[in-house]
Amino acid sequence: MHASTLATVVEEIESLYDPAWAESWDAVGLVCGDPEATVRRILLAVDPVPAVVTEAVSWHADLIVTHHPLYLRGTTSVAATTFKGRIIHTLIKNDIALYTAHTNADVADPGVSDALARAVGLVGDLVPLRPSPDDPRRGLGRVGTLPETVPLRAFAARAAAGLPRTSWGLRVAGDPERPVRTVAVSGGAGDSLLAEARAAGVDVFLTADLRHHPASEFIEAGGPALIDAAHWATEWPWLADAATRITARLRARGITVETRLSETVTDAWTTTAQCED
User: Fold this and answer.
1) Quick one: which residues bind a divalent metal cation (predicted)?
2) Which of 127, 150, 124, 152 is nearest to 138 (CA)?
3) Are 62 and 28 in contact (CB under 8 A)?
4) Which CATH number describes the domain made up of 4-105+236-261?
């Protein structure tokens, strides 16, 4: 076994999560780093935020792979006086590369929603909730089944146990005793997939960032039950799957790397408080 260059690691990441699969508005790929640099340690995280970069520096990582982009829109400055500029300066000073796999990882087979589905207990074959036009095996979201039918409240508890802990856990819309067997999931914001969830005839749709009016109208119209989780929590399970697949690809080439999953909770919401009666 021998060490790898950054270029080789990127090649294997992109064999799993082809940048061509990303949405036109997305920004994926190598953000900073020398392709000829040696990579021995890879930190995987959802968000490229200062706390994650600090974790990478402390662990002496050579590469951070994140799901969310650092720069989703163009920029004219990476000055250290800016929030994102300071991140770039810290990465470069510490010889740490940054790579992003976002919507290309969302639609991959397997991808972000596959990992989410397994985390909340779905078994057997999974199919895309919204298949990609050019390849029906890929696409947004996944539909699968539970090993047995359970009440909605029990499935919500199972999902909460399978996802990383956040300050506000899960929100559930629907009859707590509703039988649940067929489930749709989508990592990240899933508002745009409500129609597909209804058409799929599932018992519940688990996703993140659901808004009041679309969710209310969906439930009132007789749609499946809804479970709204933290955005970060629905995407975090993918990190382990990505790490396993990347290291396996490299190992097949006689290359060994060490991976670590960031446990830094980067969900934006940190505390909850109940209103008094």
Assistant:
1) 67-68, 106, 231, 235
2) 127
3) no
4) 3.40.1390.30
**Residue that the structure tokens 């919500």 belong to:** 156
**How do the domains of the chain map onto residue ranges?**
4-105+236-261, 109-229
Cβ–Cβ < 8 Å for 226, 215: yes
Please name the amino acid found at residue 185.
V
Using CA atoms of 77, 43, 132, 162 in order, give the dihedral in degrees to the nearest 10.
-130
Q: Which residues are annotated as a binding site?
A: 67-68, 106, 231, 235
Residue 82: CA count within 13 A, CB half-sphere:
10
Q: How far apart are CA 142 and CA 200, in angstroms?
A: 10
Domains 4-105+236-261 and 109-229 share a fold: yes
Contact 120, 181 (CB under 8 A): no
Q: Report the CATH fold assignment for 109-229.
A: 3.40.1390
Q: Can you tell me which residue has the tokens 């290309």? A: 104
Q: What is the value of pTM for the model shown?
A: 0.96
Is 136 buried (19+), middle (13-18) or exposed (0-12) by CB count in 10 A? exposed
- Residues marked as binding for a divalent metal cation? 67-68, 106, 231, 235
Structure tokens at 259: 């991976």
The answer to whether 173 and 214 are in contact (CB under 8 A) is no
Q: Tell me what percent of the chain is helix, strand and coil, each rounded to the nearest 5.
A: 35, 30, 35
